[in-house]
Write a structure and sequence with these properties.
binds adenosine-5'-triphosphate; 3 domains; 571 residues; alpha+beta; BirA Bifunctional Protein, domain 2; globular; 9-stranded mixed beta sheet; 5-stranded mixed beta sheet; YbaK protein; binds magnesium ion; 28% helix
Length: 571
């Protein structure tokens, strides 16, 4: 391919709209352009990268026995009403009406559609198991679309759905997808980690997320330095360190005047104690009524764990006025003693002998508060987020916290959708049974950005070879030197004939300009031919991720490049 025939509108300046490095570089490399918030055009080079990801995903899904389908982006509301999600999905679901005033949505995911298809087409155990997937556009009206392709509103997802006769079959399929995902992300050249993820009300360890490790990731993960335990921070279980004091009797609670002293830090400084001596009382509203959550002052509440414990989907901190109504005091002075709300305590709180809490009275706190003696805990559970100081819940080893970008998610659905939509089959005895389901997503367009978050330097993108839009960039020094031109034209033709993806920079530009663009685009192998290299019957080769150049004799050049490519693609 000739550079001059491509549309590669590179930018010298970093666009001010972009925060994330991948977003900046995708714009600067002329790979994407914004159309509207969270909605992007893919230009030829960006599309090439996207297609490479798709191809790897498709090959591995096919290899794992999944069958490709293509489902519509526009989905009728009736199926969502049937599954019960029309009312609970919220504002991320883009809804609209057609000319007959029928309600539709633009699919954010396809459980309803696929379950409807399967309930109509699958009737017998003989047709199962089945795993159907598609690579297709999704729309989610994200509250905060950001970081370019990482969190778009319109994006490309691979979504697969499995259908099995029983739980064992569903688990075997889950394992096959787990293995396929590992192959996919490894083939994409990504440095990733598989973590246990929250599986919501289904519970258990039936959900894994695949995280590309990058400092800029939105997700936090806890990873053990001694064993292979890793979990999303939302999910990572906290186990109490041995030897913590249980509740013991002591002096009665004592009010202390703490004028305008509200936050944990303020109270700790004012009373000359540590944040661990203080217990925060957080008042939340849920769809089943308000609750109080008790968390030690030096810990962070984990709202996912709270939701799972309470079995609720709505969990929001109560507003100022509501807190006053429920506690009788301004925000900052709530406490469990005398509070007429269900009280859920983190296990570190329940293990505390004496603590400082709000007094439910403006400008007062209570000292010497004992759980059980001074107030009733409705339930004690693990309700906080793990920290790097906590031990690994599996082996007790040390944890590190890492940042990651979620690029894949596998999930055991069980009977949730087959029950709601009555997707059944007839078993060997002719009895009607519900189908066991699983769902498996990959953020195809997010991978493009994640690869760049992980692979870049001051000069631009450093693509893994498997995802680069071209494998080789061929740069002639002085396009109008006939000898040079003849040589690169021949190399270009031979490389293309060998199936190597090569971009020949035929522009009449200074070498510096071409080198800069080649670096910006992240092309893995740069080959320079000029009068000087020809004098040695050689070309100068440079790997995008290396800092040194290599002179390779022209006669060896093509095998050398093909060897490098094969090595990087197949290890
Ligand atoms: P997130 O927590 O990042 O919002 P999610 O849990 O909502 O992700 P899933 O519903 O599991 O995501 O979707 C499957 C995959 O699709 C995710 O693992 C992610 O890679 C990708 N994805 C989800 N939302 C977006 C988005 N707004 N833009 C781009 N990719 C996305
Ligand atoms: Mg989401």
């Amino acid at each position: 391919m000739l550079f001059s025939r491509m549309l590669i509108p590179t930018l010298k300046e970093t666009p001010s709209e972009a925060e994330a490095v991948s977003h900046k570089l995708l714009l600067r490399a002329g790979m994407i352009r914004k159309l509207a918030s969270g909605i992007y055009n893919y230009l030829p080079l960006g599309l090439k990268v996207l297609r490479k990801v798709e191809r790897i995903v498709r090959e591995e899904m096919d290899r794992a026995g999944a069958l490709e389908v293509l489902l519509p982006a526009v989905q009728p509301s009736e199926l969502w009403v049937e599954s019960g999600r029309w009312d609970v999905y919220g504002k991320e679901l883009l809804r609209f009406m057609d000319r007959h005033e029928r309600q539709y949505c633009f699919g954010p995911t396809h459980e309803e559609i696929i379950t409807d298809l399967v309930r109509k087409e699958v009737h017998s155990y003989r047709q199962l198991p089945l795993n159907l997937y598609q690579i297709q556009v999704k729309f989610r009206d994200e509250i905060r679309p950001r970081f370019g392709l990482i969190r778009g509103r319109e994006f490309i997802m691979k979504d697969a759905y499995s259908f099995d006769v029983d739980e064992a079959g569903a688990e075997a399929c889950y394992q096959r997808m787990y293995d396929a995902y590992n192959r996919i992300f490894a083939r994409c050249g990504l440095n990733f980690k598989v973590v246990e993820a929250d599986s919501g009300p289904i519970g258990g360890s039936f959900s894994h997320e695949f995280m590309v490790l990058a400092d800029t990731g939105e997700d936090l993960l806890a990873s053990c330095t001694a064993c292979d335990y890793a979990a999303n921070l939302e999910k990572a279980e906290v186990v109490l360190k041995a030897g913590q004091p249980g509740p013991a009797a002591g002096p009665a609670p004592e009010p202390v005047h703490t004028p305008k002293v509200r936050t944990v830090e303020e109270v700790a400084a004012f009373l000359q104690v540590t944040p661990a001596d203080i217990v925060k009382t957080l008042i939340y509203e849920t769809e089943t009524g308000p609750v109080a959550i008790l968390i030690r002052g030096d810990h962070e509440v984990n709202e996912v764990k709270v939701k799972n414990l309470l079995g609720v989907t709505d969990l929001v901190l109560a507003g100022l006025i509501r807190v006053q109504e429920l506690t009788g005091a301004e925000v900052g002075f709530a406490g469990p003693v005398g509070l007429k709300l269900p009280i859920y305590a983190d296990q570190a709180v329940a293990a505390r002998a004496a603590m400082i809490t709000g007094a439910n009275r403006d400008n007062y706190h209570l000292k010497n508060v004992h759980p059980e003696r001074d107030f009733k805990i409705t339930e004690t559970a693990d309700l906080r987020s793990i920290t790097a100081q906590d031990p690994c819940p599996r082996c007790g080893g040390a944890l590190t916290l890492l940042r990651g970008i979620e690029v894949g998610h596998i999930f055991k659905l069980g009977l949730k959708y087959s029950k709601a939509l009555r997707a059944t089959y007839l078993d060997q005895d002719g009895k009607e049974q519900l189908i066991y389901m699983g769902c498996y997503g990959i953020g195809v367009s997010r991978i493009v950005a994640a690869a760049i978050e992980q692979g870049h330097d001051d000069h631009g993108i450093v693509f893994p070879l498997a995802l680069a839009p071209f494998q080789v960039c061929l740069i002639p020094i002085a396009v109008n030197d006939p000898e040079v031109w003849e040589c690169v034209e021949r190399l270009h033709a031979e490389l293309e004939a060998q199936g190597v993806e090569v971009l020949l920079d035929d522009r009449d530009e200074r070498p510096g300009v071409k080198f800069k663009d080649c670096d910006l685009l992240g092309l893995p192998l740069r080959v320079v031919v000029g009068a000087k290299t020809l004098a040695q019957n050689a070309a100068e080769v440079r790997h995008r991720s290396a800092s040194n150049n290599l002179m390779v004799p022209l006669k060896d050049l093509i095998p050398y490049l093909m060897g490098q490519i094969a090595q990087e693609l197949h290890g």
